[in-house]
């Protein structure tokens, strides 16, 4: 999921702790492979391990950034075939 901030960065940053807690919960549950803010900070990327775009959208709808109208996400499917994530195996807790 690739996000785009819809509000000024100071408004986004006011909700950042809640957003990071949300991402930490995704990690704990085995849904987030990695995540981070874009540079420059226009949005972010969350690499989700899900089976469908619908599942990704259902999860991301719970993001405080989305719920507060601070960011929107675009789903982009991807299969790692090379590099550090080649052969990635799903881990669910």
Automatic annotation (TrEMBL):
What Pfam families is this protein classified in? YCII
**InterPro entries in the record, alphabetically?**
Dimeric_a/b-barrel, YCII
Q: Where is the YCII-related domain?
A: 7-76
Q: Identify the domain of life.
A: Bacteria
The entry sums up its family as follows: Belongs to the YciI family.
- Protein name as annotated: YCII-related domain-containing protein
The beginning of the lineage is: Bacteria, Bacillati, Actinomycetota, Actinomycetes, Micromonosporales
